[in-house]
Amino acid sequence: MGSLLRELFSLLLLQVSMWSSDSFSVIGPTEPIVAMLGSDTVLPCRVNPPMSLENMELRWFRAQFSDAVLVYRNRAEQLGEQLVDYKGRTEMVKDYITEGRVAVRIHSLRVSDNGIYKCFFKKDTDFEEAILELRVIGLGSGPFISMVGPEDTGIRLKCTGKGWFPQPDILCKDAKGVKISPLSEVETQDDDGLYQMEVSLIVRDSSNRDVSCSMKNPFFGQEQEETISIPEPFFPRTSPWKIAFVLTFIILGIFVGTAVFLAWKGQQKNKKLQEVKEEKEKECKDKENFQKELERRKELYKHDWKKSKLYADWRKEQFIPVDVTLDQKTAHHNLHVSEDRKQVSIQSQDESEDIFSVLGQNCFSQGRHYWEVEVNLEDEVGPGARWALGVCSDTVKREGWFVESPEKNFWVVSYKDGEFRIPILKEQQGGKSQDSHCLSPRCLPKKIGVFLDWEEGDVSFYNMVDGSHIYSFSRIKFCGTLCPYFSLQGSGTSVTICSEKHPDSSPKTPETHLTNCDTDVLQEANSLLPSQEVKC
Asked: pLDDT value at position 236?
């Protein structure tokens, strides 16, 4: 009986250990996130302990679970579950998703975005959530102080402001800094949820003719203030002076109205020129700031470029460009190599499943090198159309049907039946067979950059149209000599090697090296796929 209890206790401890090993917690910001109305902001969350979130379900929502701001599942955003108010205004920031840190970026903040959010992470049957608070603030116009007229042995003033969020704190003071209690305070909200304020007060002491009105955002702390100086004759005295006050007020009103009209008329003449001048100055300043930020980021990238799989154009500067040409002697008899040895296509297609391949004439046993390839699929291609490109050892077997996998010293990416894949070997009963790992790039690449770092054991592939990272074979122990590799199957397929040219002297953003099939597109960060270690 005691032995049975000990075995049950050990089994229970093992189960608890298994449960605790899969457990995690979700952590959000401890302080409210403050952002300006109309700007962009991010709502970050992370897991502890750090782990990859690529295969989890991630959800940011408001009060109800179904009020989804953004849903990420099956490695993609699920737009069908998103609230209408957030469609087209959100994106997922997943630069560090493999380290357990993600965020949602919300564009063009509105008043309705203010409030509580929850981030919900689910892995298998385990799930956790964290609470975040977003405070949207809007600094409106005003305050504006105006004299309404004499009232109750004093002067009635009105202080107004509009376009504030949340409701601002209002303070009226005299020249000595003493608070003046308002006679009335009215706040309204427009269709966008912004507050419009109107405060009325009466000043009776003619010795305190300078009156100030301030409006302050309670969260952001920014304050705006205006002061008005009331002429001493405006204060009512005895009844005979009321007529004089009214006449003076009318005359002053006519004078002020005339002065305002003349000023407005003069301003209209120069308004367009001033707007053009300000727009040009802002444009120049934005360009200067952008260039400084670009130079700063590039400098940081140069110090630690090996750890980043981003910015294909900047990565080029660390590699030697290779003007790859095809080796006609290594081409399958069903392939046609162009006269300049830059393009290969299917010459004739038989019914066999053989792989038609050709090697590049340039081979490498050291150093860092890169070249770019444009893949072409005609509008009408035959069934089974396929291509693959990358590098391979100069000693691999390429007759008949063979396996293009890292285990056979092939490091390639391939395309078949509308899908982008990484060929691998699959264990089966009685031997091995070829299989593939499906990739999910943002779009099927038309031009691919191949980056070979022989000493570091790294072969990386980039979409050179939008600069995004496709896949990397890392920590490989190369043996012997590596050659550029290309293979085709099915009619209507061809591959063209881009000829490297010298970059021109005109400025570009970001800096690029031009090839004969380049498209200038600003590069964006893309999440990295897992690397592989392959031995010779």
From this structure: 60
> Cα–Cα distance between 372 and 326 in angstroms, integer?
13
Q: Where are the domains of the chain?
A: 22-137, 141-233, 237-303, 308-497
Residue in the structure block whose two tokens are 């955003």: 77
- Give the integer Cα–Cα distance in Å for 266 and 275: 15
User: How many other CB atoms are found less than 10 A from the CB of residue 69?
Assistant: 21
- Decide: residue 290, CB within 10 A, 0-12 exposed, 13-18 middle, 19+ buried: exposed
> How far is Cα 325 from Cα 498, in angstroms, rounded to an integer?
10
Q: What is the CATH number of domain 141-233?
A: 2.60.40.10
Query: pLDDT below 70 — which residues of the chain?
Result: 1-22, 152, 206-207, 232-243, 295, 298-310, 349-352, 377-383, 425-436, 441-443, 500-536
| Half-sphere exposure of residue 225: CA atoms within 13 angstroms, side-chain side | 12
Q: Which CATH superfamily is domain 22-137 in?
A: Immunoglobulins (2.60.40.10)
Nearby residues of 364 by Cβ (< 8 Å), 6 or more positions away:
452, 454, 481, 482, 483
The answer to whether 447 touches 498, Cβ cutoff 8 Å, is: yes
Identical fold for domains 22-137 and 308-497, yes or no, is: no
Which residues have C-beta within 8 Å of that of residue 259, sequence separation ≥ 6?
A: none
- Give Dmax over CA atoms of the chain in angstroms: 117
The model's pTM: 0.43
Q: CA separation (Å) from 339 to 336, 357, 495?
A: 9, 17, 14
Neighbours of 46 (CB within 10 A): 19
How open is the CA angle 57-419-105, to the nearest 5 degrees? Answer: 35
Q: DSSP class of residue 234?
A: G
The CATH topology of domain 308-497 is Jelly Rolls (2.60.120)
How far apart are alpha carbons 509 and 293 in whole angstroms?
11
C-alpha distances in Å from residue 360, one per residue of 174, 205, 493, 496, 515: 85, 94, 18, 12, 18
